[in-house]
Structure formats: C-alpha cells, structure tokens
Design brief:
By secondary structure, this protein is mainly beta. It has one helix at 95-102; strands spanning 2-4, 7-11, 17-21, 36-41, 48-53, 60-65, 69-74, 90-94.
Length: 104
C-alpha cells in the first residue's frame, strides 16, 4: 500500500498496481480525472516492484518496474508529466541505463 495526497495505491504480489481516491490532476494514473471509490488497475504492462507517491503536493507518483523502467503520473507542475492534464503512467527513464553511466 502507498498513500498519496487524496489517493491510495495497492502494489499487488504479481506487480499490478491499482489506485483509488481523488482523480484530479491525473493523480490516479487512469487517464482521466474521475474519482474512484474502489481500486482500479493502472495500465502498466510490466510488473512494478516499487512505488512512491508525493504527499505534500497536488499528487504525483513514480513506479519502478522489474525491467528497470521508471513511470510517472499525476500533477505535471510538480513532477515529470504534462501540467494539469490527466495522464496515464508515462515512461520516464530506464534506471539500468542511469546506473551504467554512473559507473563509467
């Protein structure tokens, strides 16, 4: 479980992520601004192994997948997605590539 600002995410044992709560700013990663009373699955095709949400801003979340990719969604003014537009999880960076560059 991960608590964000006005939202909650569930990281399931199989790597799926579900979210519920206030949908404004695309904070749930479901592609719209609809509030969700019950957890709804996010459209991330690769299993997620880590998840973190902001608690002090208008809501953004990052997810690290098993293959080393990082996805971002939520309020673009304070994170990596488009400002004030509902978004689905968006590919941000491959963590493995960052680690390789640091070791050079």
């Amino acid at each position: 479980m991960e608590a964000g600002q006005y939202c909650t995410f569930v990281l399931h044992n199989d790597g799926r992520v579900s979210g519920c709560g206030k949908g404004s700013y695309g904070r749930l990663g479901l592609g719209d601004s609809t509030n969700q009373l019950c957890p709804k699955s996010l459209p991330i095709s690769t299993p997620v192994k880590a998840l973190t949400s902001s608690r002090g801003s208008d809501g953004h979340t990052l997810a690290l997948t098993e293959d080393g990719n990082v996805y971002s969604w939520g309020d673009g003014k304070n994170c990596l997605s488009q400002a004030n537009k509902p978004v689905v999880p968006d590919f941000f960076v491959n963590r493995a590539n960052i680690l390789d560059k640091k070791s050079l």
